[in-house]
Amino acid sequence: MTELLYGIYPYAVENGIKADEFWQMTFDEIMIHITATIKHHRTMLKERAVMDHKTAELMAFAVNDPSKMPSVEKHYSFMDDSAERQPVTLNNEPDQAEPEEWQSDQALLVQQAMAVRATNERKKK
User: Fold this and answer.
1) 74, 80 Cβ separation under 8 angstroms
2) C-alpha gyration radius of the chain
3) Do residues 51 and 72 make contact, with C-beta atoms less than 8 angstroms apart?
4) What pTM, to 2 d.p., does this model score?
5) Class of residue 69 by CB neighbours under 10 A (exposed 0-12, middle 13-18, buried 19+)
6) What does the pLDDT look like over 67-88, one tens digit per residue?
7) Lowest-pLDDT range of 9-13, 34-38, 77-81
8) 1, 47, 54, 81: which one has the fewest Cβ atoms less than 10 Å from its Cβ?
């Protein structure tokens, strides 16, 4: 067992185990620490690969069609904290202070249709 510990000692120190703590740890503790460090390193590499890919996508937008380039918050979804900024409503009733754009458009269309209908009625008489 001692030969095995001497064999993994350099790898353990390389993976963040302090040299003086190594000799007080059990073999299982050492292996868990090394495995966790390797897993963390792989996760960091995957995250970096995703970020590099996202950056390349933004560069393609910038070169080919800058007008269609998405905002940073939209492209990097983890940066969109709009859900955190939403006000908390205590009642379940929707806020009727300002109509949505489609509602305004619909109201305008109905008004124009009524005006056309009234004009046509006057022409018939």
Assistant:
1) yes
2) 32
3) no
4) 0.51
5) middle
6) 888 887 887 777 766 656 666 5
7) 77-81
8) 1
